Model the fold of this input.
Amino acid sequence: MSILDTKLNHVKTVLILGHVHPDGDCIGSALGLYNYLEAVYPQLEVTLCLEEPSVKFAYLKGFDQIRTDFTEGVSFDLCICLDCSDKERLGEGQNGLELAKDSLCIDHHITNTGYAADNVVIPEASSTCEVLFGLLDEGNITKEIAACIYTGIIHDTGVFKYSCTSAKTMEIAGKMMEKGIDFTSIIDGSFYQKTYVQNQILGRALLESVVFFHGTCIFSAVRKKDMDFYGVTSKDMDGIIDQLRVTEGVECAIFLYETEPQRFKVSLRSNSGLDVSKIAGFFGGGGHVKAAGCTMDGSIYDVINNLSKHIEKQMKELAAVSEPA
Ligand code: 5GP
Ligand code: MN
Done:
């Protein structure tokens, strides 16, 4: 019996939350858990609240049950937070966590602060969906739940290519395939497919990208006025950082987009020994060693200047370790 079952045996009402700007792993784990509770604990009253999810995940069962109006002033017996490294990243969900009688966090971020009453955090896991799988009874995982877990895994591993992918990740994905999911359409539809405007903004970001530190770093920035011109929102920016990251010779990739005047959402990726979670953490964000993010204020120049100081410092430290004086 996992900690999840132990906690669920004593409750009537459950609130499921995830992080702001929910990605595939957040939505997959939240819906995977939601569908599991519905199947295995039908007596529970379960509420799932997330910020507006991208419609590309609408194939997941329960997608239409996601509430985007957050509960205010309601005290749930148990609040379960998924894929969220700190309280602040719950956004409007914070109130639900604070008022809940008990709480459980299921996550895989190295920067997790342990903010719930109990925290199941496995930084080596590819995804929160992988951590969640470990807490579920395999026999009760339906095809619909398998689709949720598989979705989270492919999104956080970049379809099994990031270094967070382990043999165990592949085993779990294989088990999900055995449940009969349509994995090709999940991968194409939720990961690779882009709308016309998403391709346009990707192209624009690549055209305007700049390499520095002798080609070892690359950045691109998209201003709000350009997002408005193309008619794109934050949900359309997925994948841009991944394309910057695969530029030959690049050790660190940075992508920014403006969320309000002089404020940028920052994505960082490392292809080398650089730990970008430390850099994002310094600026109030977090994430993983090779993929992290934060929000920064100032001009594009200020943001890149501040980030590059930290990158340079780490690069020098790494060089000193590999070539002792
Ligand atoms: P992305 O660049 O794809 O938005 O995020 C990469 C990783 O960093 C994800 O695991 C995400 O959860 C984490 N991350 C991104 N932005 C933030 C942030 O502002 N705060 C924290 N704590 N983590 C972030
Ligand atoms: Mn995740």
